[in-house]
Amino acid sequence: MRVKGQDVKKIMVTGGAGFIGSNFIRHIHKHFPDIELVNYDKLTYAGNLENLAGIEGGYVFVQGDIQDADRVATAMAGVDVVVNFAAETHVDRSIHDPGDFILTDVYGVFVLLEAMKKNGQVKLFVHVSTDEVYGSIADGFFNENSPLNPSSPYAASKAGGDRLAYAYFKTFDLPVLIARPANNYGPYQYPEKLIPFFITRALQDQTLPLYGDGSNCRDWLYVEDTVRGILALVEKGEPGQAYNLGAGQECSNNDVTRQILRHLGKPESLIRAVADRKGHDFRYALDWGKMRGLGWQPQTGFTEGLSRTVEWYLGHRDWWRKLIEKQNFQSHLRKNYE
Ligand code: NAD
Ligand code: DAU
User: Which helix (H) or strand (E) holds 38?
Assistant: First the structure.
């Protein structure tokens, strides 16, 4: 793998113990065994070193907060590329308690960018933003020049981090670029997000709380496609640019839920209509022509990806059961259906 015409020897992955970050590390470790990896992660409730079981050799884990400037600077020494996945990521939690979102998703990004400025040797910083920064769109698609109009405290914090990353390119001429992926799903996703939450609840014959009338729509991107997209950005992305990573796999929450139940052979009577999420975005949809220009396109259709995901959760019951047991102690997160 090359960046700016030079071989990439060392990548710092922040948030590598989470869902997309751990899939990214697994991919690099398998396909680019000569690249050294530093996984810098605070291990919040969403960080889980079991996601990286079996990753050995050329890999170092550093437990740390991206808000900790000294620790970040030490971990960044000798790094060619930084990929920042670290974030608070769950919209419902951001509605309940936004403080950590602002601290990690805005201030933490500032600390990383400052560390990069002082380090002076990092050749590329890929900041992982989200399609939620654009807000909801009833028809059509957002491109990278569409105005940002985030709805939730999560999305607003991500928009802050996204534009701060750009500011460090524009003001300090640092090689920073921004990825804006659509809704991801696949192995190792923490069972609070729609797909793993509903798979694991259905497997326990528990009800599936569908917000509002279930007609809200998301574009579902299989995590391996995101990982390949980020690698394309490392090799071919332009500093200062933002890139949408869409899937072209739009599906309403009603349809997603029914497909999960069909895969598992569970009855639709498990579905419960519950109160809507506050400020609930109706639809996300991206134009990803700019990524196509770099030779990237998603390869996994939703039917195929969902089937693989369901199989993974069926085969990894110990992994998610442990997380759910811990979750049950977090009473403030119990929702209005329990
Ligand atoms: P996740 O919640 O599964 O993992 C987040 C990781 O970041 C965890 O390992 C956690 O321990 C770590 N972390 C949190 N705060 C930290 C801090 N202060 N310092 C260091 N580490 C910290 O998240 P994910 O779903 O894998 O998302 C990864 C990134 O991709 C995030 O930036 C998210 O906003 C973005 N994104 C996610 C999706 C999606 O659908 N999952 C879609 C688009 C963009
Ligand atoms: O679009 C990218 C974003 O996708 C990422 O930036 C976020 O980190 C990620 O969490 C995700 O946000 P969403 O809010 O779209 O994902 P979530 O899985 O929380 O919800 C998907 C849809 O399902 C949404 O319309 C709300 C609905 N939902 C969700 C849950 C958890 C329900 O109806 N019931 C539920 O219990």
Answer: strand 36-41
